[in-house]
Design goal:
It is built from 8 helices and 11 strands. The protein has about 290 residues and is an alpha/beta fold. It has 2 domains: about 10-140, 3-Layer(aba) Sandwich (Rossmann fold); about 180-285, Orthogonal Bundle (Arc Repressor Mutant, subunit A). A hairpin with a 3-residue loop joins strand 10 (about 265-270) and strand 11. Helix 7 packs across helix 8 (about 235-255). It is elongated and about 70 Å long. Residues about 5-10, about 170-175 and about 280-288 have low confidence and may be disordered.
Length: about 290
């Protein structure tokens, strides 16, 4: 994958692109177009073959046709985002439809190209995709660095607390190795939330979304800010709301399944979301 440096743009020679299309001539043409720029290019004849290749090799950008026998491009996009959320996916189709475009955006597609597409359009889309992949990887490194710092700090605080013998009238507190928000215990390094004896297993996007709201609790965070800081790219507020809405819905459903009120995540209409403390009156909360 593209090597991450916080001061330089990605080097095309280190970028790895996967081209997926069931038509051999199209695969060959697109691959050659990208190889001339200097990219490392691999190709797959089906969505199933692409998934096997992705298990063996990390790719920065996947450029895939939508209509293919077996696994479609949209289905491939969904599986890629489950397994490698930082991989940028560009969809191509000769049968464009608004419904498919909206579904692609909801699942996290970077671009949606309508055939026939020029070589210049392909190169420009891939170049923009690489910039986004680079930014996602850079943010992931920074987030992981913050998590490590939080973990080291809480472990240090926990060690100091263990060295102190509390008075008999006070309960012994467990070492703080996580962030506690009301009934939630957030483990930054494990993509895991603990509610009493129940564990919530979240996707990376759901976890980072909840962690960001927790870190900024007390204020309403706009959807465009959440997309920028959690997903790593910039969109208008209306589009950002469509991107964030399904992730918030999934979080609320998982919280409710563990016996928590879904209004722990408050939707302030026309503004954004905030994390509500249990003691805060939920009058601002509204349904999605």
């Amino acid at each position: 994958m593209v090597s991450v440096n916080t001061h330089e743009s990605p080097d095309p020679k280190t970028a790895h692109i996967l081209v997926v299309d069931d038509e051999g001539a199209i695969r060959y043409s697109i691959s050659k177009t990208l190889q001339r720029v200097g990219y490392q290019v691999s190709s797959a004849a089906s969505g199933e073959e692409a998934l096997l290749m992705l298990e063996q090799t990390p790719f920065d950008v996947v450029l895939t046709d939508i209509r293919m026998p077996g696994l479609s491009g949209v289905e491939l996009l969904a599986k890629i985002k489950e397994r490698a959320p930082d991989t940028v996916v560009i969809l191509m189709t000769a049968f464009a439809s608004l419904g498919t475009a909206v579904e692609a955006l909801r699942l996290g597609a970077h671009d949606y190209l309508v055939k026939p597409v020029t070589n210049q359009d392909i190169r420009q889309s891939v170049a923009r995709g690489l910039e986004r992949a680079y930014e996602l990887q850079r943010r992931r490194v920074l987030i992981e660095s913050i998590r490590n710092s939080v973990r080291e700090l809480t472990e240090e605080v926990g060690l100091r607390e263990r060295r102190q013998t509390p008075p008999p009238s006070q309960p012994v507190q467990a070492p703080a190795a996580a962030m506690t928000i009301g009934p939630l215990t957030i483990f930054p390094g494990r993509y895991q939330i603990q509610i009493g004896e129940h564990s919530l297993n979240l996707t990376p996007t759901e976890f980072d979304l909840l962690l960001y709201l927790a870190a900024h609790r007390g204020r309403v965070v706009s959807c465009s800010e959440l997309v920028r800081e959690v997903r790593g790219y910039t969109v208008e507020e209306a589009e950002a709301r469509e991107v964030i809405r399904p992730h918030v819905s999934n979080l609320r459903r998982k919280l409710e399944n563990c016996g928590q009120t879904p209004d722990l995540i408050v939707n302030v209409r026309g503004v954004g979301y905030r994390l509500s403390e249990p003691s805060v009156n939920g009058s601002e909360a509204s349904s999605l």
